[in-house]
Design goal:
- The chain has a domain at 7-46.
- It contains 1 helix and 3 strands; from the N terminus they run βββα.
- Strands 1-2-3 form a 3-stranded antiparallel sheet, covered by helices on one side.
- A hairpin with a 2-residue loop joins strand 1 (7-12) and strand 2.
- By secondary structure, it is of the alpha+beta class.
- It starts with 6 loop residues before the first strand and ends in a 22-residue tail after the last helix.
Length: 68
């Protein structure tokens, strides 16, 4: 299944940086096209279904919230 995403590309020094606005994921490349190609690859990996070789461990954690 294909899904469209919005991306921005800008030059930062010698690199072109691309960022997906919906997923807040970024990549870079030597050219604008390479930065976008790398961003596509990272997004595909990000949304790839995980394949567990064994069931994950479930644990409880405590976090301080609302501390003044």
């Amino acid at each position: 299944m294909k899904r469209p995403f919005s991306a921005t590309v800008w030059r930062e020094g010698d690199w072109f940086v691309s960022q997906c606005l919906e997923a807040d994921i970024a990549s870079q490349g030597n050219t604008e096209e390479e930065a976008l190609t790398n961003l596509r690859e990272v997004l595909e990996l990000h949304f790839e279904q995980p394949v567990a070789t064994h069931p994950p461990a479930i644990c409880q954690i405590e976090v301080e919230v609302g501390a003044a």
